[in-house]
Design a protein that fits this description.
With 183 residues, the chain is α+β, with helices and mostly antiparallel strands. The chain is built from 4 helices and 10 strands. The chain has a 10-stranded antiparallel sheet with strand order 5-4-3-2-1-10-9-8-7-6, covered by helices on one side.
Length: 183
């Protein structure tokens, strides 16, 4: 009995109720400034690559950093209304083809900024299955299949922590280590 006297039970805080899907999806689509740091692994047939992933969203502009182990093969993509730029060069229509040749598949940049938040791009058709917590579980959009394997608490809500994108032979896994919304 004296052993139990020194034990203390941890208090379990009740979960904060999360907003319903429609309300949450609308609010997330209106977030214009956010950052995430994580890792990406892609497979195309028998070939694959791994990279650190840093995404910075600011309004209609996205900045994406991909770097292999020890910074090898680093790419910096800047997507703005002016177009897509690679590694600091000015935007050019050839960048998409260069990027596809380097990665081995077309990266869905226009949609990825929404998918990373756990919502579909509201401007194009989609099919969505939600999980028991009313969050995206499976999304089909623009020829891609997106599975949300895990969420983590962030800013009083939940953001995706593990995402798997697949299309034909291409498969991309994204693990988010840190979400941040600048003040």
């Amino acid at each position: 009995m004296s052993l139990l006297a020194g034990c203390k039970t941890a208090q379990v805080r009740p979960a904060v109720p999360l907003a319903p899907w429609n309300e949450r999806a609308t609010a997330l689509a209106q977030i214009h400034t956010w950052q995430l740091d994580g890792r990406a692994a892609a497979a195309l047939g028998q070939q694959g690559w791994q990279a650190s992933l840093d995404w910075r969203q600011n309004g209609d502009s996205s900045e994406l950093h991909l770097a292999g182990p020890l910074g090898i093969g680093a790419l910096v993509l800047d997507m703005s209304p002016d177009g897509l730029a690679l590694n600091g060069a000015p935007p050019s229509p050839t960048v998409t083809a260069q990027l596809e040749a380097r990665l081995g598949f077309e990266l869905p940049l226009e949609n990825l900024r929404f998918w990373l938040l756990g919502i579909p791009n509201p401007d194009i058709p989609f099919e969505l299955t939600r999980n028991a917590q009313d969050r995206a579980q499976h999304l089909s959009q623009a020829g891609w299949s997106i599975d949300y394997d895990q969420y983590r608490p962030q800013d009083g809500d939940e953001r995706p922590a593990r995402i798997v994108l697949s299309r034909a032979d291409a498969r991309v896994r994204i693990a988010v280590d840190r979400w941040q919304r600048p003040p």
